[in-house]
Amino acid sequence: MSDDLANALAPRLGTRWLGRPHRHRAATGSTNDDAAAWADAPHGALVTADLQHAGRGRHGRVWFSPAGAHLYASVVLRPAAVDARWAALGLAVGLGLREGLRSWCDRIALKWPNDLLVDGRKLAGILCEARWQGAAGHIVVGFGINLHATAFPPELADIGTTLETLVGAPVDRATVLAAVLGGLEPRLEQLADHGFAGMRRAYESVCSSIGAEARVEIEGVPSDVVVLGVEDDGTLRVHRTGEGRDEIVRVTAGELTAIDGPKSA
Ligand code: BTN
Fold first, then answer.
1. Within 10 A of 134 (CB to CB), how many other CB atoms are there?
2. Which residue out of 46, 63, 71, 75 has the highest number of ligand 1 atoms within 8 Å of its CB and is therefore the one to mutate?
3. Residue 64 Cβ contacting ligand 1 at under 6 Å
4. Which atom of ligand 1 is the closest one to the Cα of 55?
């Protein structure tokens, strides 16, 4: 166990419950797994690591997690009951992270459902995983934020960016972590108390997917769509065309792939 980030975070943390308690490891497989395995972790508990051997992203991808270069964090949520409002968790988390990062960069866009992009390059990603058995369970919210301007592997060089690159100066990991937890806490409370509807407009106003021409799988069928908006439950409203179709449909999950057009996802 390494105490570095835990010691540095404590005096900076302004949240009431998020990030408390905090376990930091020098190296681990995945902080999401550590958070899930932390049997008595209370609501808001935080796990971070300097490096992940098996960091993972959405759709089974690997999350590039070299030592000390970036921020790898997972929080445990224990909602009283998991109902429909939690389907929009990733969107609320994206908004909270964005708001926490605002003092470093105020032009972060959210790509539906939960990527943080600047100029089309990925700054941060979110992986929410729920483990539920009957009435008992928890949700783990993992996020990775690219911080330091270390070289990305060739396959990421053109698609990623780092906070340090955007700011043009070194950034302090503990200060960033404290700020994003501070941005997240009120959005998580809002989601738990009132659902996503009250933040839908805020989300739409920074969502780069809206207006985009994209390809997305709908009920197993790869479909060409124009993104129209986000619904109160966090689903995407799209205009689906091609192969004789001309319809407005909702997309509950998936990934938007850019296709050439005036505005790409
Ligand atoms: C994505 O954009 O595909 C999601 C990336 C999520 C990465 C974070 S890093 C901390 C936590 N631990 C993991 O293994 N994944 C998440």
1. 5
2. 63
3. no
4. 14
Compute the residue count for the chain: 265
Residues 125, 185: Cα–Cα separation, whole Å? 17
DSSP-H helix ranges across 85-205: 89-100, 163-167, 173-194, 200-205
What is the per-residue pLDDT across 57-107, written as a single tens digit (0 to 9) for each? Answer: 999 999 999 997 899 999 999 998 888 889 999 999 999 999 999 999 999
Beta carbons of 259 and 212 less than 8 angstroms apart: no
Query: Which residues sit opposite 52 in a β-bridge?
Result: 28
| Any atom of ligand 1 within 6 Å of the Cβ of 144 | yes
Kindly report the protein residue whose alpha carbon is nearest to atom 15 of ligand 1. Answer: 56
In whole angstroms, what is the distance from residue 90 CA to residue 112 CA?
9
pTM (2 d.p.): 0.94
